[in-house]
């Protein structure tokens, strides 16, 4: 990726390129005008300037296609990996509601709007929730790195704990409250709120439970989870191998450009996504 001022202000604390996989933190800050923001950027201020209001998308954002795979009809399988999931009525309720969220959102206008990113031989259409599993075995305590996730996911596939991946499978792995996700030394709730990635042709997203203001953004945990999950879902559909699908060298993936701008679809909080056709977040 190019090391521009705009990207360096976004990727601080990340290895080059790592920001493309993640939902960044929501940082309520004292209100500053867009003029002041660009002024500070010109002055090289490295702080992330976010005032809690809709974050202005870069006017010249443009995703270009890099010839990699797309998820044409996403088959989402959810994994609740932890010792706490399912142990209380509240956590059971959130699990059920998250599964219902995927069942509903995968056939919703949120997916329809991604059709502008169809390419020759690859058409993005509705997906399905193929199943879910509550897994306590080897549940991480304290923290879990991305390499541990990759290893575990491969083992789950081998042992048929999760269905074998197809070209459209996307595993969503939800962690227990208090378990920190670590990606290249960056940590959830300090540096990011969730990410998607791949190990070969196995595509997955890791969703730590939001317990900090930077990942709750003033919302309930469930709304924050659907918001960040929708961010990763749309990114994984349009760029399942990060940087090899639809990508913008300066601004990142489809969801990064519009981070922390939300709307309601079918009653769920979901994030706006960048539209090349309309030149804005929609
Ligand atoms: Zn992202």
CATH class: Alpha Beta
List the helices and strands in order.
HEHEEHHEEHEEEEEHHEEEEE
Average pLDDT taken over every residue: 86
Largest sheet: 6 strands, mixed
Total domain units: 1
User: Which sequence of strands runs across the widest sheet?
Assistant: 1-9-10-6-3-4
Radius of gyration: 18 Å
Model regions low in confidence, pLDDT < 50 over at least 5 residues: 1-19, 28-53
Question: What is the helix content?
Answer: 25-40%
Description:
Helices cover 26% and strands 23% of the residues. A hairpin with a 2-residue loop joins β9 (192-199) and β10. The protein contains 7 helices and 15 strands. The protein has a single domain (69-281), classed as Collagenase (Catalytic Domain) (3-Layer(aba) Sandwich). The protein is globular and about 45 Å long. The chain is of the alpha/beta class and 282 residues long. It has helices at 5-11, 34-42, 89-105, 109-112, 146-158, 213-216, 221-238, and strands at residues 22-24, 64-65, 75-81, 128-135, 143-145, 169-175, 180-183, 186-187, 192-199, 202-207, 246-247, 262-265, 268-271, 274-275, 280-281. The longest helix is centred in the last third of the chain and has 18 residues, at 221-238. The chain starts with a helix and ends with a strand. It has a 6-stranded mixed sheet, with helices on one face. Strands 5-7-8 form a 3-stranded mixed sheet. It has a two-stranded antiparallel ribbon with strand order 2-11. Zinc ion binds at residues 22-23, 231, 235, 253, 255-256. Zinc ion (ZN) is lined by residues 22-23, 231, 235, 253, 255-256.
